[in-house]
Design a protein that fits this description.
Elements lengths: L1 H21 L10 H4 L5 H8 L3 E5 L2 E4 L1 H36 L1
Antiparallel strand pairs: 1-2
Helix pairs in contact: 1-3
Length: 101
C-alpha cells in the first residue's frame, strides 16, 4: 500500500510541476489538461477535489499555488506526527520489554 501512495503522490507532483512549468498559476493563464499534458485519472481527481487545480471555465484549469503549499505543509506535519507516534510506540515497547526481564 505504501508504494501505491508514493506513486500517487509522485503523479500529483508531476501534474503540479507541469502547470508550474507552463505558468498556469492564475485563471488568466489557465490551460486545458491536454495543453499541460496530464492524464485525468486518480491523481488529477485528487488535485481537483482538494482545489489545488482549479477550474477556470471553458475546460481550462490552473494551479492554486497557495493551496498546493498548504497541502504540502499539512502532509509534512502529518508525517512528522505519524513518525513520532511510531517512535514513541517503539520506545515504550523497549522499556516494557526491559522491565519484564
Amino acid at each position: 500500500m505504501g508504494a501505491a501512495v508514493a506513486v500517487l503522490l509522485a503523479k500529483e507532483r508531476h501534474i503540479v510541476a507541469a502547470f508550474e512549468q507552463l505558468g498556469a498559476v492564475t485563471p488568466e493563464r489557465a490551460r486545458t489538461p491536454d495543453e499541460v499534458g496530464v492524464d485525468q485519472r486518480l491523481a488529477w481527481r485528487r488535485l481537483r477535489e482538494r482545489e489545488i487545480v482549479r477550474d477556470a471555465g471553458d475546460g481550462r484549469y490552473y494551479l492554486d499555488v497557495d493551496v498546493w503549499r498548504a497541502t504540502r505543509r499539512l502532509r509534512r506535519r502529518m508525517a512528522v506526527v505519524l513518525l513520532t507516534i511510531v517512535l514513541l510506540a517503539f520506545i515504550v515497547s523497549i522499556v516494557l520489554t526491559q522491565q519484564r526481564s
